[in-house]
Amino acid sequence: MEWQLVRERVSELLIVHFGLIGKQVTFASRLDEDLALDSLDLVEFAMVLRDQFQVDLSIEMLRLPYTVGDLADLVAAASAEQREKG
Length: 86
Known about the structure:
The chain is mainly α. The chain is built from three helices and no strands.
């Protein structure tokens, strides 16, 4: 999946999963301060990402603060790495 498509899909998943409809969610939105997500929310969301992209993200990878773009880039990189491994 192309990098930009991964970024858009991660953003969509955040909006739907956490009910952020109507909030201004951009790639620069900070997960903790702007979207009010905490570390438990991110662990929960990591499971959503695993199901959607077949990637495993460690707890260390999900440390705050991150932006939506940072998280999407992390997923895209992990997804590309998974594809390379076959």
